[in-house]
Amino acid sequence: MLAAEIIRTKRDHHALSEAQIQAFVRGLVDGSWSEGQVAALAMAVLLNGMGRDECVALTRAMTLSGQVLRWPTAVGSRPVVDKHSTGGVGDKVSLVLAPIVAACGGLVPMVSGRGLGHTGGTLDKLQALPGYEVAPSRVRLLRVLHEAGCAIVGASAELTPADRRLYAIRDVTATVESVPLITASILSKKLAAGLGSLVMDVKLGNGAFMHDLAEARALSESLVAVAAGAGLPCRALITDMNQVLGLTAGNALEVAESVDFLTGAVQEPRLRELTLALAAQMLHGAGLAPSVEAGAALAEAALSSGRAAEHFARMVAGLGGPRDVLADAQLPTAPVVLDLPAPRDGVLVAMHTRALGLAVVALGGGRARASDAVDPRVGFSAVRPLGAVLRAGEPLLRVHAASAADAQVAGQAVLAAITLADAAPSAGPVIIHTLLPSTGA
Asked: Which of 286, 229, 224, 134 has its CA nearest to residue 440?
């Protein structure tokens, strides 16, 4: 099929056939479609959309463009389940959620990514642990899954090569925001990972890629419907990202908070509520709990008993990290640590969360370019939540930086991103909406 005719079909508001979609995906992989042709079709999809059947066909074709994982009985007969977040600031949920679900009987082969824009990346966080291997051999991966029940790793080059090329082109052609293309990108990778069920955490707010509830609902509905069409049971939670999630933002700092969370030393309430809610949905969706409420109770017991912490420790040690991460994580620390004082008395009523994420990137905790190195030491800790009542001079947060000059610049960025007022509005919910596959509501 001629690429130009396939582009013309979508340009003229017509649905693409399954054969046309398969031809497009083949062209992505073998290079017979030029970058300009791929960009043209991506823009046509952005402007004219895709129907559910089209998006299902695209998701399936991208899934089958490379290796599809199958989990042998060597790792047990446990249901294979995962969670995916659309990204935020301070979102270390994956680090604590995977071992909780593993401790409850799930198998969690979590294929994660690096930081994107202002959002942190799970792989960057885990690589703050000395020796942690994000690209293990298949033999090692299977051994860790058998022993720990979870493994947080990166995608191999063999998984969804069509998506890898399409995403790179979308990233430089202003076509990232297409709901059908986002849906196919996320779900193709999850289907290729051999999942039996999936829970989506769709972030909403000024620290998320989705700023509008209607947009977040549209993406959630697309993910749930297309996953069902592709044979993957999926449910979605729309969750708040109008403030840093937890107490930290920055790679080593978030790992340290995760260890404290799992051991019960410190559990920030919003992080705890979201983690247990996602765990409950994962356990119910995987058939490990008869109801969401029962799943929440199982997750709570796994966390409070220390079993989840043990599974995390096994995963880290099995993937080459510290042998006893719960006692000594061996995380690097920044040479400059400064408290940022509140400039006046007041209530913290708003924070521009995206700006805080970009401040972490500017400190060196993220990438401005794909080739940039990441400084795992830097970021923010002791971040005060919305609604906190502060006196002038009390710390808003603690800055961890490579130099005093960097710390000063980051502090100025934080002060420009927060709002103190005399009174606080009522706090919004952490979980804004839940979309289940059975009801569509």
From this structure: 224
Could you tell me the CA-to-CA distances from 272 to 296, 299, 303, 435 in Å, in that order?
Answer: 11, 11, 10, 20
Residue 258, domain member (yes or no): yes
Q: For residue range 175-206, what is the model confidence (pLDDT) as tens digits?
A: 888 999 999 999 998 999 899 999 999 999 99
Active-site positions?
A: 82-85, 122, 170, 185, 189-190
CB 96 within 8 A of CB 258: yes
Give 339's strand partners.
398
Q: Total structural domains in the chain?
A: 3
Backbone φ/ψ region at 194: left (φ over 0), alpha (ψ -120 to 50), beta: left
What 3-state DSSP class applies to 312? Answer: helix
In this structure, are 323 and 389 located in the same domain? no
Residues 293, 213 share a domain: yes
From the number of C-beta atoms within 10 Å of its C-beta (0-12, 13-18, 19+), residue 70 rates as: exposed
Q: Which helix (H) or strand (E) holds 421?
A: strand 418-421
Q: Are residues 98 and 214 in the same domain?
A: yes
Residues 328-374 pLDDT 10s: 999 999 999 999 999 999 999 999 999 999 999 999 998 776 677 89
Residues 286 and 381 in one domain: no
CA distance 252 to 148: 22
**Spatial distance between the Cα atoms of 98 and 136, rounded to a whole number of angstroms:** 18
Q: Give residue 395's pLDDT band: very low, low, confident or very high (50, 70, 90).
A: very high
User: What percent of the chain lies above the pLDDT cut of 70?
Assistant: 96
Q: Domain containing 135: what range? A: 73-159+173-328
Contact yes or no for 417/206 (Cβ under 8 A): no
Q: Is residue 426 part of a domain?
A: no
Q: Please work out, in degrees rounded to the nearest 5, the angle formed at the alpha carbon of residue 46 by the alpha carbons of 42 and 49.
A: 110
For 268-290, give the DSSP string: -HHHHHHHHHHHHHHHHHTTSSS
